[in-house]
Amino acid sequence: MENALLWIEEELKLIKDKQLFRVLTELQSGQNPEVLIDGKRYILLASNNYLGLSTDPLVKEAARRALEKYGTGSGGSRLVSGSLDLHRELEERIASFKKTESAILFSSGYLANVGTISALVGPGDVIFSDELNHASIIDGCRLSRAEIKVYRHCDIDHLGYLLSKTSSSGKRLIVTDTVFSMDGDIAPLPELVELAEMYGCMLMVDEAHATGVLGKRGSGATEYFGVEDRVHIVMGTLSKAIGSLGGYVAGGKKLIEFLRNRARTFIFDTSLPASAVAASMAAIDIIESEPQRRDYLWGLINRFKSGLKDIGLSILPSNSAVIPVLIGEAEPTLRFSILLKEKGVFTPAVRPPSVPHGKCRIRATLMATHREEHIEIALSAFREVYNELFVNP
């Protein structure tokens, strides 16, 4: 029986030889600016908890109250016995936040993308997908069994060409991240909206890394660009800036009713626990009512990016809380991350398949709970490692 799995050993050897082997780093604390790893304190520059809400006292208290009232689990799928009044309240809150008619919850952002895309299109339909879309979008496209046309990253001309050369029979869907998780840049939503309207396509956007960070209210890129009423399907997560757990899709009432009846990752999945739902509602309230958190975060981002450039490091163009420091090959990128950790800064190396070969990077992310002194200490560590590896090796 063991012989049937001998191939795994060879695969693991290949992964290790390419410097792509991954191990888990266990944190012994919450997603704070400083975290404990093996009993030692590090500055955390690797969290998507952009506004620090996962450890906010009001958010934790909301989760605690819901836990006491509803218990630890929901007990079933939403269509059986697992649909709580809190689920409906959060869906209504998300719809208001995203300026749509309705919304539907999923247990994760991954499930939201996979279930929605595979429900909306199928054989005989065509999907137009940005080449740097998140894996959950890619998997949703594959599972749909629709024809997939990948356009060059944020290249409106290439997308327009593909649309013009594609038959209009069947449904057509354009899908994109709004903020790209590894590059930190923003999709050109106004131009995408124009193309979708010109060619009669559905337009779906993934707001995972934009929510809480972009827009005056923190609603995301659709608000930032003023196209909230022109995007058909708005997906997002509750697990990044919102600081909780889960995913959602917001849109028209008929769209949400359709997904409730056709999205397999909604129908057959146990619903979110009440504690996560209550935490999400509290966090959205804070996002809308405390724009100063966002303003402070952007001040930190600008200071950190400026400092990295002064050191001589190459930063990919980013307009978000994601700051990609391009190193290149896997081995020096991994070494850079290890040396940063030795100097008290935790931010892992990002290697294929998360990014293309030759474009490995340190993906630094900041939180509104970081202090200026954290940024200065981190910049000092980056400077020392850069000099050790590339100036005076």
Number of DSSP strand runs: 14
Strand content of the residues, in percent?
A: 15-25%
- Unreliable residue runs: none
What is the 3D form? globular
What is the ordering of alpha helices and beta strands? HEEHHEHEHEHEHEHEEHHHHEEHEEEH
What's the CATH first level of the largest domain? Alpha Beta
Oligomeric state of shown chains: single chain
Helix segment count? Answer: 14
Helices and strands: which structural class? alpha/beta
- Helix content, binned percent: 40-55%
Based on CA atoms alone, the radius of gyration comes out at 22 Å
What would the average pLDDT be, to the nearest integer?
96
Ends apart, CA distance between termini: 49 Å
Strand order of the largest sheet: 3-9-8-7-6-4-5
Secondary structure layout:
Blueprint (H helix, E strand, L loop, with lengths): L5 H12 L16 E4 L2 E5 L12 H14 L14 H14 L3 E5 L2 H12 L5 E5 L4 H10 L2 E5 L4 H9 L7 E6 L11 H11 L2 E5 L14 H4 L8 E5 L9 E5 L1 H10 L1 H4 L6 H16 L1 H21 L2 E2 L6 E7 L1 H13 L2 E2 L2 E2 L9 E6 L6 H20 L2
Parallel strand pairs: 2-12, 4-5, 4-6, 6-7, 7-8
Antiparallel strand pairs: 1-2, 3-9, 8-9, 10-11, 11-14, 13-14
